[in-house]
Amino acid sequence: MFDKNAKPSPQRQRQLDRYKQLVERLSPNSDMGKGLFRAYWVGGAICAFGQFLQEAGKMWLGMNNTAASTFCSTVLVLLTALLTGIGVWDKIGQYAGAGAFVPITGFANAMVSPAIEFRREGLVLGLGAKLFTIAGPVLVWGISTSVVVGIIYAIWPW
Amino acid sequence: MLWNLLKAFVVGGAICTLGEVLVLKTKLTPARILVGYIVAGVLLSAVGLYAPLAEFAGAGATVPLTGFGHALTNGVKKAVQEIGFMGAFTGGLTATAAGIAAAVFFGALAALLFKPKAK
């Protein structure tokens, strides 16, 4: 009845070509250099701020290395949660792309953002479940890979 | 201290830029890139390539999600050295407990306090 491999009629083909041109013309022109520059400076700035938090923790709050790096990720996560809540993070994310979502801030935003959005579906299956929409897969694959590494390491330590 | 901040900026920026290249060139979704980054971090750390980078760049290497993978591997190796085989199951989450607990707690709190924004 309908052969999807059949060549489209010339008329239909013209239509398809026109549509393709239209899509190309209208889709936002993602200027590569600009995107990379934005990702670089925002991502770099977030990491430098993290470094600052660590050093500040060690210098002024008397933390050891472990406590200082915990302090760093906790503060970054807290700030991201706040900025996501008041709607500012969306703008940073749009501007910086991977510069915003590759650092731990992206992990935090990926949890908070769907949790806020789906909160009206309830505290358990809305907020509770949607916190893990993206964090879930990240944890599943990260933890599973690390368990495999651990098992190999337990058998053949290197 | 300024020198450390600069190193974190340069290396952290480079890791993020690599992610942006993936976004622009491959049309992978951010979720897939994040999963790829954490798995890459675990594996790079397992073969010993990530530790020197973390040593050099500090937060520039540990704040990106690859650093989360690095922490998982470090924790697992340390736990295996301490308690043997079962450490493969305890080490990763022990080492990353703070980051995960903070993200869960502040995430839940933010979702309770803030209303969804009209898009």
Explain how this protein is built.
The complex is a heterodimer of chains A (158) and B (119). Chain A is mostly helical and 158 residues long. Helices cover 79% and strands 0% of the residues of chain A. Chain A has eight helices and no strands. The relative contact order of chain A is 0.07. The mean pLDDT of chain A is 90. By secondary structure, chain B is mostly helical. Chain B has one domain (2-113). Chain B has helices spanning 2-26, 30-46, 50-57, 59-62, 65-83, 87-113. The termini of chain B are far apart. The relative contact order of chain B is 0.11. Classes of the chains: A mainly alpha (158), B mainly alpha (119).
Task: Based on the model shown, name its key terms.
heterodimer, A: mainly alpha, 79% helix, B: 119 residues, mainly alpha
Compute the average pLDDT of chain B.
92
**Rg estimate of chain A, integer Å:** 23 Å
How far apart are the first and last residues' alpha carbons of chain B, in Å?
A: 41 Å
Unreliable residue runs of chain A = none
As a percent range, the share of strand residues of chain A is under 5%
Number of helices of chain A: 8
Tally of structural domains of chain B: 1
Secondary structural class of chain A: mainly alpha
Uncertain residue ranges of chain B: none
**Topology as H/E string of chain A?**
HHHHHHHH
Largest interface: A-B, 76 and 79 residues
As for the number of domains of chain A, it is 1
The profile of the biggest β sheet of chain B is: none
Give the percentage of residues in beta strands of chain B: under 5%
Multimeric state of these chains? Answer: heterodimer
Determine the number of helices of chain B (DSSP H or I, runs of at least 4 residues).
6
The profile of the biggest β sheet of chain A is:
none
Q: Quote the average pLDDT of chain A.
A: 90
